[in-house]
Amino acid sequence: MALLDHFLSRLIRKGTLTVVDVNGTSRRFGMAAPGFPDVTLRLNDPKAGRDIVLHPRLGFAEAYMDGRVSIDDDDIMGLVMLARGNARWESGKSLERTGPVRKAAKAALRRAKQANFRAASKRNVAHHYDLSGALYDLFLDRDKQYSCAYWAGELDDLPENLSAGLDKAQLDKKAHIAAKLALKPGMKVLDIGCGWGGMALYLHEKCGVDVVGITLSEEQLAVARRRAEEAGVADHVKFELIDYRDMQGEFDRIVSVGMFEHVGVPYYREFFRRCHNLLKPDGVMLLHTIGRMGGAGMTDAFTRKYIFPGGYIPALSEILQGSEPNRLMVTDVEALRLHYGYTTRAWYERVREKRAEIEALYDARFFRMWSLYLAGAAAAFEHGGMLVYQLQYARDRHSLPITRDYMLEEEERLRALG
User: Fold this and answer.
1) Crossing angle (nearest 10°) for helices 364-382 and 56-66
2) What is the b/e burial string over 323-344, where b = at least 16 CB atoms within 10 angstroms of the residue's CB?
3) What is the domain count for the chain?
4) Segment 163-219, tens digit of pLDDT
């Protein structure tokens, strides 16, 4: 236990962590501090401490999922926030020089973990998005938006229970994105990674455009097509099971929300090349993606193994390195710093409320895994190096107004429509 004690004494400075081992002996780390929780972690297996020290993220995750460690009140959010809050990205504690050999080795390993060739892409998407639709119904908003919401207003405007404000925040997200597309009735729009069809249906209803949505998830495709049929708009909003690399046609606009994280750095140039060729000469594209502050990194082992195999969160520099060679002009960039933290907190609240239903769908181990995933995501956006980027691209510098006023005016109009 000496190694675990040393590890935790260095990690936990603010807030307190009490660790109780299998013999009932307890040790306390840190000091009470405003804004930091007090958490009790119980080691139910004599090897759990070793696993945490050797592989802090994956070792702890698997021990928690298996019940080999537990937290009083099952407060996994508190534990993750305590750990992340003591190592905030802004602290710069890990600033080090990186030599060319080490840098090249990390880059090679990163690329090896992102081999999203066609067969792997479909398999990776199915791992996450072809889970039971009933699961997503339990914690997403009414429109099944599985991406960062937009929490309009000031911090004081946020509801105390974020779950209560989720539906409005997701509706405001669609208005925020639609406004940046500068749409006109009759335009043809491509939605890359269309999810369950909510964005495509919204753009048609509010802006009078025709939309083709593409996905690699058979579960999402079935739901999206059914929704279009039920709304009586299947002639104007169509959905296809197709890889973006195989898409053909010409579009006035392209929108992609929460899909780019699954492309993989080795395929960024190909992604943007395809987007360039699918856009009309005066076309506009809006890319909404989770981003990484600072430079390139690597997906942690827990996320890679259990949540998003093949997924990677890019740095802004990596995105631009993929788009710049393809003559796509960056016309607007927005960084949503805390919005996804609030969104994942809202999802976490809903998941915890639906524990019995989720365990009935899967089991207690899956519930713990999903809770840890959402708690970790919230901590990454509130204390770690994650945020969301919205990048607007155009092929022609004259395609859009020269100020951002049109975005604000259109967003106000759309939000008034509800």
Assistant:
1) 150
2) beebebeebeeeebeebbbbbb
3) 2
4) 999 999 999 999 999 999 999 999 999 999 999 999 999 999 999 999 999 999 999
- The radius of gyration of the chain's CA atoms, rounded to the nearest angstrom, is 22
Q: Which two tokens stand for residue 116?
A: 């999203």
According to the model, what pLDDT value does residue 132 have? 77
* Angle CA 295–337–56, to nearest 5: 60
Max CA-CA distance within the chain? 71
pLDDT digits (tens, 9 = 90+) for 52-93: 999 989 999 999 999 999 999 999 999 999 999 999 998 875
Are 179 and 291 found together in one domain? yes
Residue 98 included in any domain: no
For 78-130, the DSSP string reads HHHHHHHHTT-GGG-TT-----HHHHHHHHHHHHHTT---HHHHHHHHHHHHT
Q: Residue type for 129, please? A: Y
Residues 53, 123 share a domain = no
Q: Which domain holds residue 49?
A: 2-87
- pTM of the predicted protein model: 0.91
Domain assignment present for 94: no
CATH number assigned to the domain comprising residue 183: 3.40.50.150
DSSP codes joined into one string, 58-82: HHHHHHHHHTSEEEGGG-HHHHHHH
Integer CA distances (angstroms), 325 to 244, 249, 273, in order: 19, 21, 8
At residue 97, what are phi and psi to the nearest 5 degrees? -75, 140
Contacts of 120 (CB under 8 A, 6+ apart): 310
**Domain identity same for 75 and 204:** no
